[in-house]
Design goal:
Layout (H helix, E strand, L loop, with lengths): L3 E5 L4 E10 L2 E7 L5 E9 L4 E4 L7 H14 L5 E4 L4 E4 L4 E2 L1
Length: 98
């Protein structure tokens, strides 16, 4: 697993730092330019899919672990997301189920 993943945004580049590995997924937390971690801003990836969960979604860390468990069992995350090119998905309430 990479220790750092960078995602291009409209205004800047977001940096996500590896915090944990779980069931074949790397779980990353966003770190802002001032050096602080952004509360409840996550990215998780299995090297094929990159799923970004921004803080306004109010998803708990444990909810993401449950989504990973469901994906490993059934092949679906049971989350709504917007595809942002390639294999990058942003969780959003008005997105399509993934």
């Amino acid at each position: 697993m990479k220790r750092l993943i960078k995602i291009e945004d409209t205004l800047n580049e977001r940096k996500y730092i590896l915090k944990n590995e779980y069931e074949g997924f790397g779980i990353y937390q966003e770190k802002c330019s001032s050096g602080y971690f952004v509360h409840q801003s996550w990215l998780f990836t299995d090297e094929k899919n990159i799923i970004v969960c921004e803080s306004y979604n109010n998803k708990l860390y444990e909810e993401l672990l449950d989504a990973i468990d469901l994906y490993n069992q059934k092949g679906l995350f049971n989350l709504k997301a917007i595809k942002k090119g390639g294999n990058v998905y942003f969780i959003h309430p008005s997105g399509k189920p993934i």
